Amino acid sequence: AALIVKELGFLPLAIDQAGAYVQTRRKSLGEYYSMYQAHQANLLGYRSMLSKHEKTVMTTWELSFNRIEEESPEIAEFLLLLCQYDPAGIPDEMLKKGCTPQPVFGQDGELMTLAPEEDLVPESMITLLGDDFTFDEVVEKLLSFSLVQRSRGQPSEDGSKQFFLHPLVQFCGMTRAREDA
After folding, report:
1. Per residue in 14-30, pLDDT tens?
2. Taking the CA atoms of the chain, what radius of gyration do you get in angstroms?
3. 57: how many CB neighbours lie within 10 A of its CB?
4. Edge-to-edge order in the sheet of strand 149-152
5. How far apart are CA 95 and CA 83, in angstroms?
6. Bridge partner list, 104
7. pLDDT tens digit sequence for 35-44
8. What gap in Å lies between CA 166 and CA 92, rounded to an integer?
9. What is d(CA 177, CA 74) in angstroms, rounded to the nearest whole number?
10. What is the DSSP letter of 45?
11. How far is 76 from 146, CA to CA, in rounded Å?
C-alpha cells in the first residue's frame, strides 16, 4: 500500500481511484502495483461506480489543461514543455537562458552569437520567457490551477526560483504531448 500511495504522489483522488479499482476488480495491492507500472494511463483514467469522485485524475487534469489552452495556448505549450523535464526543480534561469542569444563557435572556430529563433526556439516561448512581467503572468496562471509549485533554490544554490511538478501532472502532460505530436 505504501508503494502505491508513494507512486501516486500522495494524491487523494488517485488513491481513491486505486482503492476503488482494487475493490471492484478484486485485485491484490501487489497486482494493482504491477498493473500500474504497465498501464498507468488506463488506471488514472479508470472511474469506478464505487468511487465518491465523479472525475478521474486524467479527466481532472484534462479539464484544467483545456481551460488554460483556451485562455492561452502559449501557456499550455509552456506547461507541456515543463512536463518534459525532471519534475523536481526546474530552474527559471535554465528556461530563460534557452530563450536568449547564446555564444557559439562557428564552422571556422570564430565566436558567434546564435539567436534563439535560429536555434528553432518557438517565438511563443521567447515571448513568455523573455519578459519578466509576462513570465509572472504565466507563473500566476499555472499556480492558479495548482499545476505547478514554486520554490526558491536550496540555501547552497544561487537562490533562483524553480518549478516543481507533481509526478502525475508530469505524466498527464507527457501523455498529452505524445497525443499532440
Report:
1. 888 888 888 888 889 99
2. 20
3. 27
4. 88-91, 161-164, 149-152
5. 13
6. 112
7. 888 888 888 8
8. 17
9. 14
10. T
11. 14
